[in-house]
Design goal:
The chain contains 6 helices and 6 strands; from the N terminus they run αααβββαααβββ. Strands 3-2-1-6 form a 4-stranded mixed β-sheet. Strands 4-5 form a two-stranded antiparallel sheet. Helix 4 packs across helix 6 and helix 5 crosses helix 6. It is α+β, with helices and mostly antiparallel strands and 219 residues long.
């Protein structure tokens, strides 16, 4: 095979993947708009909750599957042609947008060993290790009226102080910052939960985007 033929094949494959990614992005956008619309209806019209929840569950499953396929295709092209497809910061924007509606319910059941069974918005139950179970509990505390419908923001120091009092062991601000990343990853990996429900804001602080009143601790 001549070098020119190999280059042509690489370019053709790259174009094919680009076309597929463009189509998938359009499909993902349509799905995300449907999810956002139905989720708002779910919050405002409780009587239709079961039907809307079924739509959301199906569409999120389809969306995640498409995202995984796009990631695999990007890795394939990078392996053949170097860095044809770059990673863009906007890749996570759909999840960030969806997280703006927040969570309607958070259920936490603490076990004797310190781990906790967690369920968010009536989804599947999953387990968090003690450190992360304590952290999501602290982030979801309703600490008074704020500027939106969610529980209030807390500073990293406030969360660290709270966890220090609860555990009797020093908890540093650095540990909180590191565990925020771990918590997002575990929520997504274990529970299929939008990781951006764990919110951070340089000026306001940190919190779990939970709507007020509907938090319930089983412990």
């Amino acid at each position: 095979m001549q070098p020119g033929d190999a280059n042509q094949r690489i370019k053709a494959r790259a174009e094919e993947v680009r076309a597929t990614r463009t189509r998938r992005r359009a499909e993902m956008l349509v799905l995300m708009r449907g999810i956002s619309r139905r989720f708002k209806n779910l919050v405002s019209k409780i009587g239709r909750a079961e039907l809307n929840a079924s739509f959301i569950e199906y569409e999120i499953f389809q969306l995640l599957k498409m995202m995984e396929e796009c990631a695999r295709e990007a890795d394939e092209i990078q392996g053949v042609e170097g860095s044809i497809i770059e990673t863009h910061p906007s890749a996570n924007e759909p999840l960030r947008h969806l997280a703006e509606s927040g969570a309607s319910s958070l259920e936490i059941r603490t076990r004797p060993d310190g781990t906790a069974t967690v369920r968010i918005d009536g989804g599947k139950q999953f387990t968090l290790p003690p450190t992360l179970a304590d952290l999501i509990t602290a982030l979801s505390i309703d600490n008074g009226p704020g500027d939106d419908a969610f529980v209030g923001w807390k500073s990293v120091k406030e969360v660290a102080d709270y966890l220090t009092k609860q555990s009797g062991k020093p908890v540093t601000k650095r540990a909180i910052t590191q565990n925020l990343y771990r918590l997002r990853k575990e929520l997504f990996d274990r529970g299929g939960v939008n990781p951006y429900l764990v919110q951070s804001n340089r000026r306001r602080g940190i919190r779990f985007a939970l709507r007020r009143i509907k938090s319930r601790d089983w412990s």
